[in-house]
Amino acid sequence: MGLQGFAPQKNVERIPAVYWPGVSGALHLHWAFSCRELPPFAAGHFNYVFVRSMPDGERTPLFIGETANFIERMQDHEQWRNAICLGMNEVHVNLSADSYWGRRLIESDLLQTHRPPLNRG
C-alpha cells in the first residue's frame, strides 16, 4: 500500500509543527503532513507517527516508528492499511535524531507515553 497516491508536498512554509511529549518529559518536534503528501525531505532518516487528526485539533497517534529511509519504509509499510482503516490522515516526521540510536531513543520515549494501537502486539 504505502506511497501509492502520494503527491509532492506544496507550500512547505505552511507545514504545521506538532510537539509530541515523551515519558522523559521531552517534547519532540514533528512536522505534520497529509498522509497523501510526500514530505520534501522524504529520502531522509527520521522518526514518524501515523496520526488521526480531528477537526477540533485532537490528534491520536496510531503508530510510532523510525526509519533510515522514509521512502523505502513507506513503500510497503505493514501498518499503512491498518492506520488508514483507523482514520489516519496525517504523517508526522521528526528530523532531530542524527543516528540509529538517537531515533530509537525518541521512538521508545514516545511509545512509552502514547502506546499507539498499531504498536501493540
Automatic annotation (TrEMBL):
<protein>
    <recommendedName>
        <fullName>GIY-YIG domain-containing protein</fullName>
    </recommendedName>
</protein>
